[in-house]
Design a protein that fits this description.
This protein is 45% helix and 17% strand. By secondary structure, it is α/β, with parallel strands linked by helices.
């Protein structure tokens, strides 16, 4: 199966899928040639995501595609489903479970500017967070920080603290008890976010839910308890020095093979 993102954020989803379904082969694709997605218009995203996933599907022949990018899912999911005949799973911010879990009824949503401002996200809030105060914060700089972290570079904790200050300083921020990580890059910064938060909060993402959905669609086809764990591969759309720096980090996610998508 294929897990797709603009960068390395979807590794947080791949990690959950691999843990739940250890006997399937995973291809992880990062469209680093067009990174970051969060600064692009909706029409640009639909065109780019559709083009790259068409090429990836031809190369990997997946049985399921996971668009492990909140920004791409909220803009291009329907377009991709329109030309693929296999199941395509998108990721959405975990607003529903966050609203259900919050004791104070004040929840936060961290995401890219595109995701937090999208009509799709607004519809999720209207449907699942009735009675809650939802504080939103666009934090594209955290995407860059997660990319740097996988390259073995340090994360600027002061920058992370400044992002969270924008969230906690909003009206009712002193009652915030649950924060939705509305970008798949952000769980990769879990320790840094927890360290920088003004006080302890619950952090929620959709990785485990996506893994369960994949398992349901596979319906036992992954079950090979006596077989070896399969090697996974990473595919990038551009060969860069950053990718070379990521190789050790990728191996921690079981991605021992690194390839580049032919143009």
């Amino acid at each position: 199966m294929l897990v797709f993102d603009s960068g390395v954020g979807g590794l947080s989803v791949l990690r959950e899928i691999a843990a739940l379904l250890p006997h399937i082969r995973l291809s992880y694709a990062a469209d680093n040639a067009a990174f970051p997605y969060g600064l692009k218009t909706e029409s640009e995203l639909v065109a780019r995501v559709s083009s790259v996933i068409r090429r990836l599907a031809a190369v990997t022949a997946p049985d399921i595609v996971v668009i492990a990018c909140n920004t791409a899912s909220t803009t291009a999911l329907d377009a991709v489903r329109g030309f693929l005949v296999i199941p395509v799973i998108g990721v959405v911010p975990a607003i529903k479970p966050a609203a259900a879990a919050s004791a104070t009824r004040v929840i936060g949503l961290l995401g890219t500017k595109t995701t937090v401002a999208s009509p799709y996200t607004g519809a999720l809030v209207a449907q699942f967070a009735t009675g809650c105060t939802v504080l939103t914060c666009g934090a594209t700089e955290l995407v860059e920080a997660a990319e740097r972290k996988l390259q073995g570079l340090p994360v600027d904790i002061d920058m992370v603290r400044a992002v969270l200050t924008r969230l906690f300083d909003q009206p009712a921020g002193d009652r915030l008890d649950t924060v939705v990580l509305g970008c798949t890059h952000f769980p990769l910064l879990g320790p840094e976010l927890a360290a920088a938060a003004r006080y302890p909060v619950a952090w929620m993402d959709s990785g485990a839910a996506i893994a369960r959905r994949v398992a349901t669609l596979l319906n036992g086809r992954d079950a090979r308890p006596d077989g070896p764990r399969l090697a996974h591969r990473a595919i990038f759309t551009a060969e860069t020095e950053a990718v070379d720096r990521m190789r050790a980090g990728l191996r921690r996610f079981g991605l021992d093979e690194v390839e580049f998508l032919p143009r």
